[in-house]
Amino acid sequence: METRAPFVIVGAFVLAVIVGVFGFVYWLNNAGAVGRRATYQIAFEGSVPGLLTGAAVLFNGIRVGEVTSLRLDSSHPKAVAATVAVAIETPVRKDTKVGLDFQGLTGVPVVALEGGSGTALVTPGDILQAEPGAGQSMTQAARDALRRMDAVLSQNADPLRDTVANLKIFAEGLARNTPRVDSILAGLDRTMGGSQAPQAKVTYDLDAPLFEPGQPRLKTQIIIGEPSAITRLQTQRFLFPPGEERPGFAVAQWSDSLPALLQAKLLQSFENYDVDHPPLRPDNAGQSGVRVLLDLRRFEIDPSADAKAVIVMSAKILDESNKVIAARIFSASQPVSIMDPGTAAAASNTAFQALARELVQWTAQQL
Fold first, then answer.
1. Could you list the residue range(s) of the whole structural domain that residue 306 is in?
2. CATH of residue 45
3. Among 71, 82, 254, 259, which is most exposed with the fewest C-beta within 10 angstroms?
4. Alpha-carbon distance 316 to 330, whole Å?
């Protein structure tokens, strides 16, 4: 019995395979990994070391295609022509910048496209011109720089040799005259005052006055803040009237800025007067009571013919409702026999004690 071949089935299978192949090719060129491509011509001026067919093409750092061909231009021996195929949606314009980028440790070259700001499209026949030196790698750039440096050194060999010889002569002369150079530098240092060590400051303080026992009590809590003062008085220096200075007082200073020093010493003065009702600072928590507002107007040494230490201060007493109870200006002075820091400090201390004693007693009388 003769076997009949299933020609219909075989024919249908072959036809299905052919249709499948054509379908795969169509998908690969339209919807697959390759997609529709646009082809552009690129002209490089100079060598493109390491660039191969199949190398990647990047647009703004994103891979969009590859190099499809490389060829030499017989009419222009230094030029290299390349053909690239990129995704159809790549925004290649006439002002697109073209160059080579070297990626990875091995420096694999890829074609790098960078978008411009123009809108003119590339028409068939247009050639994208690569930037000059686009194919130069870092190694080649270093070699060129070294070559140029070598050329400069070669052209200036004699001047450089003379310069080195002059430096050698100068160094030898400097070594022979080292003691004289040291002497000259030491003289300059003394002239500029650099050899003089800064003088240590001498600090002076004030003393709070003492009171005889049996004085009237304050009868209420008082608050004493730091005296207000102009900027000139907010210092530790010994002050003189404007235009008057004494060099011997440059190293003398008070133990604190004048407003802070007077506040501390007045607090001690009120404590010496009535230790059972010590005054408070404004920053004490839970404070309440009568406030004494002070304003420092003068604290200086008057170096006139009748030299003296002068202190002037105003005081206001406010009750708990901020109503002024009393106000007065206090002034005290003490002669300065010798115009030196120690004598001036002693005279200022005596003047302060007199002013502080009068201020404390007046405050007690008002309260």
1. 202-366
2. 2.40.30
3. 71
4. 11
158-162, 203-207, 232-236: segment of lowest average pLDDT: 158-162
**Domain end among 106, 132, 158:** 132
Q: Are 302 and 308 in contact (CB under 8 A)?
A: yes
Q: What is the DSSP string of 58-89?
A: EETTEEEEEEEEEEE-TT-TTEEEEEEEEETT
**Comparing C-alpha atoms, which of 25, 30, 31, 36 is closest to residue 89?**
36
> Are residues 114 and 206 both part of a single domain?
no
Q: Which of 97, 132, 167 is the last residue of a domain?
A: 132
Considering only residues 197 and 6, tell me which one the structure prediction assigns the higher pLDDT: 6
Paired strand residues for 294: 315
Closest by CA to 112, choosing from 53, 56, 41, is 56
The 3-state DSSP class for residue 248 equals helix
- Which residue's entry shows tokens 């002024």? 324
Per-residue pLDDT at 51 exceeds 70: yes
pLDDT tens digits, one per residue of 230-289: 999 999 999 998 877 777 888 889 999 999 999 999 999 988 888 877 888 887 655 677
Burial class (CB in 10 A: 0-12, 13-18, 19+), 307: middle
Does 125 lie in the same domain as 221? Answer: no
Helix (H) / strand (E) containing 358:
helix 341-366
Lowest-confidence region among 32-41, 153-162, 264-273, 332-341: 32-41
